[in-house]
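Sharing a chain and its predicted structure for anyone who wants a worked example. Both blocks are below, sequence first, tokens second.
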Amino acid sequence: MKPIIQEIIREMIIYTPDKLSLEDCNYILKADEAMGGFSELGPYLRLIKRWMDPFYDSAYKTNIKELSLITDGVDNEYVYKKYIQIFEYLPEIKEFLVLNEGSITYNPDLTEDELLEMREYVFDNTKRRGE
């Protein structure tokens, strides 16, 4: 896995509403400041992180190739605009993700081994309740 990809994923994992988490986030800090803090950025990064985490595959019947951004009963245009902002203020995320109309997919330049390595990294480094 490229170091830049690992670093962004690491930052996504440790990013919390606690401002202390930002002390160790170089890339996400820019997006956090531009978008107005955790409440405007955190829920969307959490959704990406959950999609990337194999821990949730069976519980959420995850399509590991594509994260749909379309949800019934939600202002999908608003949500899509938030992801546009994330990709604008955190452009390095494009190293491993692609924002499509209504979905996010992995960058097609990544190999299957790289995808597996990223997903395993998320699984291995995400703290869950009770751990």
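Comments welcome. Residues 38-52 form the longest helix (15 residues).
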